Amino acid sequence: MGEGMSLTVEERKRVAEAWMTQIADTLRLKTVIVQVGAGNLKESVELARHAEEIGATAIACMSPSYFKPTTEEVLVEYMATVAAAAPTTPFYYYDINFMTGLYCDFNRLLTITRQTSCPSCPPLLSVFTMSASFTTSVSSQFLPALALGIDVPILNGFLGGIYRRLKEAFDDNDLQTARQQQILARKLTQLREKYGGGPAMVKGIMRCLGVNLGSVRLPLKDLSEEQVASLGRDLQDLGLTE
C-alpha cells in the first residue's frame, strides 16, 4: 500500500509482525521484505533491528526525503549504517525517487557500495527501483523487464493475478498472452491518472474487488463515493469485476 510513512514506528512494527505470522500460517506467503526507510536514521535503525529479530526474509530501505543525502557516498554511508543494525539479514536499497526527490547515479552507487568496507553489514543485494530512469519492473514495463532478466516486480496487490499470468505465459514462450496481460495491467494502472493515484486509489480498487482496507490518513484523502462507483464501472469494463 505504501502507507508506512504515515504510520508510527510501533505501528510499523506491528504490521511487520502481522505479515510474519502469515508465513507461519499459510503456504502461499514465503517471503516478507520489510521496508524500514524513515525520516531519520535512528528510526530506520530501530526498524531494521526489529525486522531481523522477527525473522524477516530481507530488509529494504528508502532514503530520507526531507534532509537528503547529497552524494552517492553519503547515501551508501547512510544505508550501511541501517544495514549494520541487522547484519544477518539481506539488505536492499529501495529507490522510489519520485517520492523521495533523490536522484542518483546507480552505477556509481553500486561501485561505491562494492568498495565500501563494512564487516558488520550484509551485502547490498540489489536496488529496488521505481525510477523512470532505470530498468524497472513496474506495471507498465514488466514484460520488457522480463526480457532483460528482471523477474521480481514491484506492484500493488491488485496486479498480482495479472502479473502471475503474464510471467507464466512468458515462461511458456506464449508472447501473445503475455502481451495481452501487459496491456491489461497498463490499462489498469492508467486509471491512476483518472483517480489521482496513491494509496487512496489503491484502496478504492481493493474495495471494488471486495477487500475493505479502511481509510487513508491525512494529508491524504479517500476517494468519494461517486469516484468509487465510477472506478467500479471502469474495472467492470476491463473484465476485472462482474
Automatic annotation (TrEMBL):
Its EC number is 4.1.3.3. Pathway: Amino-sugar metabolism; N-acetylneuraminate degradation. Its main location: cytoplasm. SMART domains: DHDPS. GO terms for cellular component: cytoplasm. It comes from the Eukaryota. It catalyses: aceneuramate = aldehydo-N-acetyl-D-mannosamine + pyruvate. It is found in: Cytoplasm. One of its GO terms (molecular function) is N-acetylneuraminate lyase activity. Signal peptide: none annotated. Transmembrane segments: none annotated. Keywords: Carbohydrate metabolism, Cytoplasm, Lyase, Schiff base. Homotetramer. Belongs to the DapA family. NanA subfamily. This is N-acetylneuraminate lyase. It comes from Pomacea canaliculata.
